[in-house]
Amino acid sequence: MWKPNQTGSSTPSTPEPVRPATPTGGATFEAARPSAAAAGAIPAGEQATIGKSLVIKGELSGSESLYIDGKVEGTITLPGNRVTVGRNGQVAANISAREIVVLGKVRGNCQASDRVDIRSEGSLTGDVIAARISIEDGAFFKGGIDIRKPGSEVKGGTAGSPTQATLEPAGTEA
């Protein structure tokens, strides 16, 4: 044990007196997270994950963000949250969420109250309704795009409505 009259290290050999009585691991971990949240990452505690080996058929709904690295068939409804289709993800479903990020393959219509982001490795075949859309170089997209003002909701229609504009390559005439 360290005594005040000893020379050498002034650090006690046991750290217990320095530590508070309650564990602070969670508070320390949370304090380190704001930089990740500022970069657009979702904290792990607020995001569910469907792993590579999982196959889900049916209807997914909830109130937290979702990361899909497996296969999903059916419908995904997560209003106010983010749906991320990972590089290994294969989705054959209509997706409705605040934000949709595609790194894998999606076959179905996507409706986002905020934005749809198709990354360079991503593939989306289906119609998109969103306030904003981003398609990186190298990404695959086949479908229609309907840009809506933030806050406007789609009533009784689908992304594949006949009034929707389709993209034509520049320099071509109909």
Automatic annotation (TrEMBL):
Region: Disordered, residue numbers: 1-30, 151-174
InterPro entries documented for this protein: BacA/B (IPR007607)
Superkingdom assignment: Bacteria
Family annotation (Pfam families): Bactofilin
Segments of skewed composition (Polar residues): 1-13
Family: Belongs to the bactofilin family.
Record-given protein name: Cell shape determination protein CcmA
